[in-house]
Design a protein that fits this description.
- The structure is a homodimer.
- The first copy, chain A, contains six helices and three strands.
- Chain A is α+β, with helices and mostly antiparallel strands.
- The first copy, chain A, has a single domain, classed as Arc Repressor Mutant, subunit A.
- In chain A, a hairpin with a 5-residue loop joins β2 and β3.
- The first copy, chain A, starts with 15 loop residues before the first helix and ends with a helix.
- The first copy, chain A, binds a DNA duplex through α3 and α4.
- Chains A, B: Keywords: DNA-binding, Transcription, Transcription regulation.
Amino acid sequence: MAKNNYTDGCTDVVCSVDYAFKRIGGKYKGRILWNLSNKNILRYGELRKTLVDVTPKMLTQTLRELEEDELVSRKVYHEVPPKVEYSLTDIGMELIPFINHLKEWGDKQRLKEKVLSSLKTS
Amino acid sequence: MAKNNYTDGCTDVVCSVDYAFKRIGGKYKGRILWNLSNKNILRYGELRKTLVDVTPKMLTQTLRELEEDELVSRKVYHEVPPKVEYSLTDIGMELIPFINHLKEWGDKQRLKEKVLSSLKTS
DNA sequence: TGTGTAGGGTACAAAAAAGTGCATACTTGT
DNA sequence: ACAAGTATGCACTTTTTTGTACCCTACACA
């Protein structure tokens, strides 16, 4: 018999929860995926304006990671000036329900916080 | 007319997607929540054994954050040796369906990766 | 000939997150 | 008297993640 039975399916270096969080973790990934799910296709510059606080370097880096992880696909038009379009892959789309629900949960929590703080100042 | 219409509901410092990711982001938070949802109640030491790679410092720190965010509740028994039990709050429980969804997505992806790599070595 | 434009790249610096090592309290068992 | 067990706390270091500043390309237009 095993000395302990606290195994959690996370006995490898990472379990699936860990694995998934790593793939969508990071400061901008959630918002990029969410915006792509709303607009279907966004150009680099559009993403940059949408995620107001992102720097070009971080946007590029994050998009590259999402692309490598096959959550986002990148379509380059060989025009001048250049044009690059980003959209969700099928794998990426499967995450959208999760992100939507998370957003709704966040909305709810933020609303609660707002109500509570307005009660304090009154 | 506005100069651009790329607003995304994220015009505050953070939008709800951002907000939610911050509350459940971090190396161990997802796994802690998921394990608590499976076992209902876990003691500090049990969590430590379950999350094999966590250091005591990080576990304590993460649990404190989850407690402050009201995702997890902490019950101290004034015994010797000390005993502390952790469980999900109602707010924390609301996140479980999404974490489960994420886990299933992760399972599926990892399975795919496994199949692909076994094809390569054959 | 010079300027603007879209979508980047790179080196370096700063900030945030995580890890290490050591210490503590109290009590029961040897 | 002394070690063991449980759940931490704290100072310090390392690692990871972000940010800053500046550079490039290729064509179109004036």
